[in-house]
Amino acid sequence: MTNHWIDIQNSDCILIMGSNAAENHPISFKYVTKAMEKGAPLINVDPRFTRTSAKADIYAALRSGTDIAFLGGMIKYILDNNLYNKEYTAAYTNASFLVDESFGFKDGLFSGYRKNSGDGPSMGGYDKSSWAFQMDDKGIPRMDKTLKDKHCVFQLMKKHYERYDIDTVVKVTGTAGKDLLKVYETYTATGKTGKAGTIMYAMGWTQHTVGTQMIRTMAMIQLLLGNMGVAGGGVNALRGESNVQGSTDHCLLWHIWPGYLKTARASNDTLEAYNKKYTPKSNDPLSANWWQNYPKYSVSLLKSFFGDKAIPENQFGYTWLPKVDDGAVYSWFDLFDAMYKGNLEGFFAWGQNPACSGSNASKIRKALEKLDWMVNVNIFDNETGSFWRGPGAEPSKIGTEVFMLPASVSVEKEGSITNSGRWMQWRYQGPKPLGNSRPDGDIIMELGHRIKEKYKASDGVFKHPILNLKWDYETNGAYDPHKAAKEINGYFVKDVTVKGKLCKKGTLVPSFAWLQADGSTSSGNWLYCNSYTEKGNMSARRSKKDAANNIGLYPEFAWCWPVNRRILYNRASVDPKGHPWDDKQWVIKFAGESKDGKYTSKKWLGDVPDGGWYPLENPDGTRRSDAKQPFIMRKHGFGQIFGPGRADGPFPEHYEPLECPVEKNYFSSRMVNPTAVVYSTKEDGHASCDPRFPFVGTTYRVSEHWQTGLMTRPQKWLMELQPNVFVEMSEELAKLRGIKNGERVLVSSARANLECTAIVTKRFKPFTIGYATVHQVGIPWHYGWRWPATGTEESANLLTPPAGDPNTRIPETKAFMVNVTKL
């Protein structure tokens, strides 16, 4: 989230797409309700009429997987009706940047496309050289602030979305034209200065072969309307777990290290080469280019890993870290694909249930059979730990040795979580762990000690990374979360003078602005540097005092990365002179003194400013040379309407899901994202426009169960509320198939069959797509064979396809094709 939960109450309009927030994120909806009480309309766009829809002022239905068409139409509506925030767009976005004259787009493909001729899962990729910006003789992007040059981003965007007219969007999405216009008219009103609109989304957007670009499209809209950095604005992801944000920050994903540093590649053979590769350079003196500090963060991370053993002579231990092969991908899909092919020997399943949660779950279960060993770390046994005795499994033929390590539940351990709004909050231990279960921290600490002992006692291959790893996060023999939190914050590891102040060895670093690249500081995650300082544990604070602007920042309640900044890019909430766009709900404002029309002192009020420099202009309108552009994490300092870093194009484009009900893409001849990843083994079938599978399927959650049901299905009272995996369908489809409410039916895809209970409701309605009628059904994904004891209820992910987004490899579980037949 660029903003945070409480800030939603400051919105003048809330758009919820790809989420059923009222049911699945009720805390967020508390603040949606507060905004609505002040007059803000709520818009909900969803294939199904949900509990969120029931609370919305405007509801619009769309077919799963067509959100880019829907939002692309909104961009065209904004541009055609001159509704964009002109001053904000010209001043703070790259709309004015001139793109290389060789850049082009034709029939669904951007310039530089190359189809994959190998046997990998990627369908293809782009040579992005033509996507570059034109540079002046100083190496700064050329701009046209009038936005009229045919090569500027604004004009290229206008040309790209001229195809997204109302009639075509209706044909693709199935949304009624009057509903489209009502949504467009209502939400784009937030482009007026002093107004703010926010977007809330969840897995309904991310889990598509174009998921990243769905979010990009909305980010472009927010930039055009001036909704980034302001109170009540932003692009806000609703996480499915209380600590998804925290685990991602600390490198849950394979391609990053803590703090979103890049995973080292084989070609980055030295620390110097690594830092050079990932440290962007900008020649613009007005660009903060904050990632220029990359070496400070990478070296401090290495000092945190290896402590005193990390010295300049050994590149601070950089050579001890594993390097991933250039061009190789180690995502969830790729790991289980390798496991299925017999290329992995062992697997730690830590706090997860991939036998139910993974797309194309049958393949995952088959893959587990190919292992020598598996360790299941969880609070209960689950379908993953017991895969060898599940439906269709033959235990006598499975050689995988399975170990179960019982873990404590969240209330039995102390530590922090970082919620969707980036707020790190400390939680204390309640009851002691039951039985022989142990907190995750204790399990991982003992495992590390055992591995170290093994290496000490033998001549193990490449032992230096293990023996030199700093591993001292215990007190009285037990894992100490405070020691870990302090290590994550970072220390001065020797006496050093920074910012004119002597910083003593062993003291905690006050913020990441003090980190150094010479090995004098450590930090396990630079983004969290400032979270546990000499003043104490910032995340444990509980003051209910608000900031002076009284917009719900609560700066002394918990702690928020970075440096307790509650709203990211908040320097875009003021005009170039430092005055808030919104005088009533201002986030920050400049209060420095001025003389003769020039600012003479620096002072910002409100939230922690996104950089404490002077505003871009003096009160008299003259430009300052000591200011910085507001989007400090971007190399050039501007919000990116044109995004040249994405794998599938600098502008989002509508493509159909891998499995779709139509034979024609009304925007181009390209059906599927030409850079999507599609896995092909005998377990990886897929079918599009196949009469055997005529209906669109999607997965979703219900409030009675949690994730794969591991913590809820064993509870009798929750199973009483939602006892069966069900397939929800429209009355029209039920009539077509002769199905009555409560009957058992078979849902089938190209991969598997799933027995379900039919739930016939008015919440789904047939779509008219082009000239065809398309039905959609939905299945909750909380079930598996382990509970209930009947063994009749199984995972919806047996049905989902083997395709993913090219940027993230996230699976396309929200749009696929199925059949529904009466049993």
Automatic annotation (TrEMBL):
PANTHER family xrefs: FORMATE DEHYDROGENASE-O MAJOR SUBUNIT, TUNGSTEN-CONTAINING FORMYLMETHANOFURAN DEHYDROGENASE 2 SUBUNIT B
Pfam families found in the cross-reference section: Molybdopterin, Molydop_binding
Origin: domain of life: Bacteria
Transmembrane segments annotated in the record for this chain: none
Annotated Gene Ontology cellular component terms: cell envelope
Cofactor: [4Fe-4S] cluster
Designated name of the protein: Formate dehydrogenase alpha subunit
Annotated compartments: Cell envelope
Family recorded in the similarity comment: Belongs to the prokaryotic molybdopterin-containing oxidoreductase family.
Organism this protein belongs to: Desulfocicer vacuolatum DSM 3385
Keyword terms, alphabetized: 4Fe-4S, Iron, Iron-sulfur, Metal-binding, Oxidoreductase, Periplasm
